[in-house]
Design a protein that fits this description.
single chain, alpha+beta, two-stranded antiparallel sheet, globular
C-alpha cells in the first residue's frame, strides 16, 4: 500500500468548472479503478484559519493505492489520461504538463472511523 499527497492549482476564473471536473474524475476512479483504495480531493476551507494561509486556488489530493504499480496504472491509464485531455486547461501547467507537487507518505499509526465513509458508498 502506498499513500500520496498531491497538490494542483486551479487557474483563475476556472474554480467552478474545475471542481465539477474533479468530481467527475473522482466518480470515474471510484467506479473503474478498484486498485485505488482511497481517492479524496480537497480545496482550502478559507472560513477557518490555516497557517500559512493556503492559496484559494489549491487542490489537494490524499490517495491510497494498492501499490506503486497501481499508482502508475492510475496515472497512465485511460480514466486519468482521458480526463486530463478534457480538463487540463483548467489547471496550472508547466512545460505542457499538469504542474503537481507531491509527497509519498508512509503510515505509521492511525485509523479511519466508519462514519467517515460516504454512507451511500459504504457497501460498495
Amino acid at each position: 500500500m502506498v499513500t500520496i499527497n498531491a497538490n494542483w492549482t486551479i487557474l483563475e476564473g476556472k474554480r467552478e468548472q474545475a471542481i465539477a471536473a474533479l468530481r467527475e474524475l473522482e466518480k470515474e476512479v471510484r467506479e473503474k479503478e478498484p486498485f485505488v483504495l482511497m481517492y479524496t480531493i480537497h480545496v482550502p476551507n478559507l472560513k477557518l484559519t490555516s497557517y500559512p494561509t493556503p492559496a484559494p486556488s489549491g487542490v489537494f489530493f490524499f490517495s491510497i493505492f494498492e501499490s506503486y504499480a497501481a499508482f502508475e496504472k492510475h496515472l497512465n491509464g485511460p480514466v486519468f489520461q482521458d480526463w486530463l485531455k478534457k480538463y487540463q486547461n483548467l489547471f496550472l501547467t508547466n512545460s505542457g504538463g499538469l504542474f503537481v507537487t507531491s509527497e509519498w507518505l508512509e503510515r505509521v499509526a492511525g485509523y479511519i472511523r466508519p462514519e467517515l465513509l460516504t454512507p451511500e458508498l459504504a457497501g460498495t
